[in-house]
Amino acid sequence: MDTYQHILLALDYSAQGGLLAQRAKDLAEKYQAKLSIVHVLDNIPMPDTGYGTVIPLAQDSGYGLLEAEKTKLMQVGNQLGVAQADRWMIWGSPKQEIVQLAEREQVDLIVVGSHGRHGLSLLLGSTANSVLHYARCDVMAIRLLNA
Ligand code: AMP
Fold it and tell me: Which residues pair with 141 in a beta bridge?
């Protein structure tokens, strides 16, 4: 393979998310690849909505915390020009859901930040580290400086 066709950007909205998003956009343009984005909800309690773990973005849940998360994903999606169908919000464990989504959607490059909300004291954050170990495709960790 000499080019990437489908790039998945994993977003946790931490301080340097703008840099991460820009890198993913640049890579997608360089390779003329499809760009998808995912945010995994691991920090808000999930009400019994009747949804599965993949949150439908077009439907109003009536749950403020969830709608606020959707708004953030939509803003980044709009900034990056990501198609609605390629924006993902999934409830669960980021390290597992990112890898599983990448397999399901035939992603060939996952882009993560070296550190996010959880990993400031580590050389490589725990989500980034785990994705690197378990993904079956290439993973690019964008070096983000500790705040
Ligand atoms: P961490 O390993 O938690 O410090 O985070 C490193 C990177 O993993 C972040 O910059 C994101 O790219 C990704 N990541 C962490 N948490 C999430 C999440 N909840 N949803 C999507 N991506 C995440």
Answer: 112
